[in-house]
Write a structure and sequence with these properties.
The complex is a heterodimer of chains A (about 325) and B (about 140). Chain A contains ten helices and seven strands. By secondary structure, chain A is α+β, with helices and mostly antiparallel strands. Chain A folds into three domains: about 30 residues; about 100 residues, no CATH class; about 140 residues, Chalcone isomerase (3-Layer(bba) Sandwich), CATH 3.50.70.20. A six-stranded antiparallel beta sheet of chain A has the order 1-2-3-4-5-6. Chain B is an alpha+beta fold and about 140 residues long. Chain B has one domain. Chain B has three helices and six strands. Classes of the chains: A alpha+beta (about 325), B alpha+beta (about 140).
C-alpha cells in the first residue's frame, strides 16, 4: 500500500515538470528566427574605445550581428528578443551606419549618450540576463567625449533646407496624417531652446497644450493638444548675442490617442525648408526615428521634450497671469 | 527555466516609468503676453539668458521695416529667462527662471516710454539704451 502511494506521489512530482518541458518543446515549433540581414557599413570614424563599448552593450539588438545566448533563442523568451531586435534595428542599426548622413550620425550619437546617461539603455530586463552589457560611468565618459567632439556637425533634426522657392499654396501633410498649419504663429510660446547642432528653437502651443502645461496634465496629455517647435539656424551678433537666422524646419506633435496608438498617442511631423517638405517616406517614420527617444527620455512629461522647467515660484505664475 | 520567467516578470516590474521629483511651490510658467504676439527671440551665452520679444501689429510693422523706428501705438514686451541644460536631453538648453519683463510703448504723438514691469536686468542700462536695443530685433522668418 505504502509503496503504491509513494509511486503515485513520485509520478505526480514528475508529471508537472514533464508537462512544462513538453509545452516548452512544443513552443519551439513556433520559434521564428531573427531575420538575417547583411552588414553594409560600421561606424569606422569612431575611436576603438567607443566601438568596443557599442559592440559590447548595443550590438546584440542594434545591429545585424547578434551573438545571442542559448536562452535568448528559446521560445517564449526568443519572441521578446525578436521583438526587441526588430524594434532596435528600426530605430538605429550599427551594421548599416553608412546609410546615415554625418548630421544623422551626430544625432544618433547624442541619442546613444542620452539613453546611457539616463540609464534607459541597455534595457534593464536585458541587463538582468546579460550583465556584461552594463555601461559604466567610465564608458559613458568615453561616449560623451566622442559625442561632444562631433557637435560641429549638423543634427538630424536640422535637415538641410530645401532649395529656396515659393511657399506651397496648399499646406503639406505628413505621411502619418499630421497636417501643417500656419495658425501656430498666433499661438502662445511655451518655451525656448537650443540644441548641439547650433540651432535656436521656439516652442508654440495651442490653447489645449498651454492649459495642459500649466496644469501639468501630462498623463496623458489631452487629445487635441498641438505643440509646434520652430527651428532656425543661429545667427551670431558682433557682441556674441545669438538671434534666429534662416528657417530650418517646424516640428509638430499632435495628440490623438486613438489615431496615433503606436507612438504613445502623439502624431509626429517635421516640415523642412522654405517648401516645408514633410519628413518620412511612409507613416512608419515616427516609429523609427521619433518616438524611441521621446518614449525613453521624456516619459516624465508625457513624452514631450522642452516642457517649461518647474523652477519658478507658483506665486509668480499667478502674478504673471493676472497682469 | 522557471527562474527565467521570474526574472522577466521582475524586469517588467522595474521598467515602470519614473516621474520627475515633485517641486514644492514651484510651477511651470507659460508667459501670458495678453493681446501681444511672439515676434522674435535671442540667446545671450555670456549671461546664460534667453529672451522672447512680444508685440502688437504696430510693433511687428516697426520691427519688420528697415528703419526700426517706433510707430504710434507700438507695444512691445521683452521677457528674459535664465537658461539651463535641458534636464531631459543632454546637448540642449531650455529656459528656466523668469528674470525680467520690460515693456515699451509709443503714444499717439510718437513719444516712447520704457518700463521694467518685473525683475531686474542682468546688466543695468539706461531706458534709452534699452529702447534702442529692443528696437534692433527683427521678426523671425517662417515660410
Amino acid at each position: 500500500m505504502e509503496t503504491t502511494k509513494n509511486t503515485k506521489r513520485i509520478k505526480r512530482i514528475y508529471i508537472i515538470p514533464a508537462a512544462i518541458v513538453a509545452v516548452l518543446i512544443g513552443l519551439q515549433l513556433f520559434n521564428q528566427p531573427i531575420a538575417s540581414k547583411p552588414v553594409t557599413g560600421h561606424m569606422d570614424e569612431a575611436p576603438a574605445a567607443v566601438l568596443a563599448i557599442l559592440q559590447r552593450s548595443c550590438y546584440n539588438c542594434h545591429s545585424n550581428e547578434q551573438k545571442l545566448s542559448w536562452f535568448d533563442q528559446l521560445a517564449p523568451a526568443s519572441w521578446a528578443v525578436k521583438k526587441d531586435v526588430d524594434r532596435a534595428r528600426e530605430v538605429m542599426n550599427l551594421s548599416e551606419w553608412d546609410k546615415l548622413s554625418s548630421g544623422e550620425r551626430t544625432g544618433k550619437m547624442y541619442a546613444i549618450l542620452n539613453m546611457m546617461q539616463a540609464g534607459k539603455m541597455p534595457l534593464r530586463e536585458y541587463l538582468l540576463l546579460h550583465p556584461g552589457a552594463k555601461v559604466s560611468e567610465q564608458d559613458i565618459e568615453v561616449v560623451k567625449k566622442y559625442t561632444l567632439s562631433l557637435s560641429g556637425n549638423q543634427a538630424p533634426h536640422s535637415t538641410p533646407p530645401a532649395a529656396a522657392g515659393a511657399v506651397p499654396k496648399a499646406f503639406p501633410v505628413s505621411p502619418n496624417g499630421v497636417k501643417y498649419t500656419d495658425a501656430f504663429k498666433q499661438w502662445t510660446v511655451i518655451s525656448m531652446s537650443t540644441l548641439f547642432d547650433h540651432s535656436i528653437r521656439v516652442i508654440y502651443g495651442n490653447d489645449i497644450a498651454v492649459k495642459a502645461v500649466r496644469e501639468e496634465n501630462f498623463f496623458p496629455w489631452p487629445d487635441g493638444a498641438i505643440v509646434v517647435k520652430a527651428v532656425w539656424k543661429q545667427e551670431e551678433q558682433p557682441d556674441g548675442e545669438i538671434r534666429p537666422g534662416e528657417f530650418v524646419n517646424a516640428q509638430f506633435m499632435e495628440k490623438n490617442a486613438e489615431k496615433y496608438k503606436t507612438t504613445e498617442g502623439w502624431g509626429f511631423a517635421k516640415f523642412s525648408g522654405q517648401k516645408l517638405v514633410p519628413t518620412g517616406k511612409d507613416a512608419l517614420f515616427a516609429q523609427q526615428s521619433c518616438i524611441s527617444c521621446h518614449r525613453q527620455l521624456a516619459a516624465s512629461t508625457g513624452f514631450l521634450f522642452d516642457v517649461p522647467m518647474k523652477v519658478n515660484p507658483t506665486s509668480l505664475t499667478e502674478k504673471i497671469l493676472s497682469k | 527555466m522557471n527562474r527565467l520567467f521570474y526574472l522577466l516578470l521582475l524586469a517588467a516590474f522595474f521598467t515602470a516609468c519614473k516621474n520627475e521629483r515633485p517641486a514644492n511651490g514651484q510651477s511651470r510658467i507659460v508667459f501670458e503676453p495678453g493681446g501681444l504676439k511672439f515676434i522674435a527671440s535671442s540667446l545671450h551665452p555670456k549671461q546664460e539668458t534667453m529672451s522672447a520679444l512680444y508685440g502688437n501689429d504696430s510693433a511687428l510693422q516697426s520691427l519688420a521695416g528697415s528703419e526700426h523706428q517706433t510707430t504710434a501705438g507700438t507695444m512691445i514686451k521683452l521677457v528674459t529667462w535664465r537658461y539651463h541644460d535641458n534636464p531631459q536631453y543632454f546637448g540642449g538648453k531650455i529656459n528656466g527662471e523668469l528674470l525680467s519683463i520690460e515693456s515699451i510703448q509709443t503714444d499717439s504723438r510718437g513719444a516712447v516710454t520704457y518700463h521694467l514691469d518685473f525683475g531686474t536686468l542682468q546688466r543695468p542700462a539706461a531706458p534709452t539704451a534699452r529702447i534702442a536695443y529692443i528696437m534692433t530685433y527683427k521678426p523671425v522668418q517662417i515660410p
